[in-house]
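Below is a complete specimen:
___
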Amino acid sequence: MTLSYDGQRWMKTLWTLVVLVVVLVATASAGHKCKYERQGKWSECENGKQTVTKVKQEGSDQSCPQKKVKTRMCVAGEKCKYEKNDWSECNEATNLQTRTMTLKTGSSRCSPVKSITRKCKKACKYQKGNWSECDPMTKKMTRTLTLVKGSDQCPPSKTRQRRCRKRKSSRKACKYNRGPWSQCDPVTNKMQRTMTLKRGDRDACDPIKKVTRQCRRRAALTAARIHTKCKYEFADWQQCDLRTNTMTRIMNLVQGDPEKCAPTKELKRKCRKPCKFRKGSWSACHPTTHLMTRMDTLIKGDKKFCSNKRQITKKCKKGKRKCQYDIGEWSDCNTTTNKRTRVKKLKKGDLKVCKPEIAMTKSCSRPNGKERCFFGKWGEYLPCMNGVMTKTRELIQGGTECERKAVKTKACS
């Protein structure tokens, strides 16, 4: 059989492609002729890394190096193998058992001895009895557990209780035809509808039921508007209150049921034309009333609503009464009144405003009967030590609870 010219040409092209593929595969595999085998074990972990030496296998390319060092990161958990000993006897106080494990194989980083703790296994086995009938008084069921296997320390019997389960009723459910809701009663704000028995045991189910519920908000408002028509007469707006900048109007009942309608109503709103004043200076604090006054003058506003001047009064600030006192020491506890007293004498301040002496009294004991803490004056801060400054005061009365309140510390500045 002879091929045509085109067939011979096609066969030559095919053989050429096959030869090229074989050459490419041989060239690619030539670079991977370096094969090694591991010599020895991985080294100890140093600086987070381990090394191992690999030796060239026979048949590898001559261009490959004879030895090669491979590096890897240390394994997080080293393989430490232990020999397990028997579990100890159960500790009755803690209900725990302990087992000691001795190092079998592993590096020097492995702990030579390890101990494991676990809860003791149940040494007492019981046989469960049947549940009793439900007790109607306690609504609970009871059953007894009898000892089958265990030591002398196990109780011979145990009692368990649980709540009674709700049994499903064997009788058929009662189904009803629902009637329409009645109109909302404005007095009780409730609606009602009648339900007629559709299916169920007539001896167990009610033939007719009535259901009541609260009216919805919209229904209640509609009913109130229909049944309670309250009409009011508006009075004139009163003068503007300068302190709150509001005006008030009274509404009097003209038509409607007095039991359902309020006899009067009060409306408030902001003044249409506010009054602006220039603020005056505050007077000195009055020694008796402890009040200060200020007179403001009208700058802008309608004189029909605004007065030419307004007077404002307020309490004196504590800072305005500059009274400084020397605090005395606490007296001994009075056995009759069970109280201690100390006197504060005026050190600096106006005698017209400040009292020359103020007496303070405190009960020697708390309401629970324990001693109350009494202290002397604070001393000065001691020199800085370890970054902290400390000052103390004398503890006159009180136990260990009061001692910590007799010391104050702060950071050195």
About this structure: Helices lie at 5-30, 217-227, 400-403. The two ends are 113 Å apart (CA to CA).
